[in-house]
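C-alpha cells in:
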C-alpha cells in the first residue's frame, strides 16, 4: 500500500511524496533425499569402523525457515 500526493508548484516544477506499508510472509523449504548414496556410504563406514555409526540425521536433509515482517517506507520526488 502506498498512498501518494503531488503538487505542481509552477509550470516547470512539481513535488511529490508517498508513504508505504509493506507486509511480507513466507516459508522457504528444502528437501534432498540422500538415501541411496548415504546408505551405501554409511555401510562402508560401518565396515571400516567395525560398528554401526550410521545416523539418519546425516542423510535426511529437510530444512524449513519461515518468517513475516512489516516495513514502513517513504518516497520523495521532484520533477522539473
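Residues out:
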Amino acid at each position: 500500500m502506498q498512498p501518494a500526493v503531488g503538487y505542481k508548484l509552477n509550470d516547470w516544477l512539481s513535488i511529490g511524496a508517498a508513504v508505504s506499508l509493506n507486509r511480507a510472509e513466507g516459508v522457504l523449504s528444502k528437501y534432498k533425499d540422500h538415501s541411496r548414496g548415504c546408505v551405501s556410504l554409511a555401510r562402508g563406514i560401518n565396515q571400516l569402523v567395525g560398528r554401526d555409526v550410521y545416523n539418519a540425521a546425516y542423510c535426511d536433509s529437510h530444512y524449513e525457515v519461515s518468517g513475516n515482517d512489516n516495513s514502513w517506507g517513504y518516497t520523495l520526488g521532484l520533477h522539473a
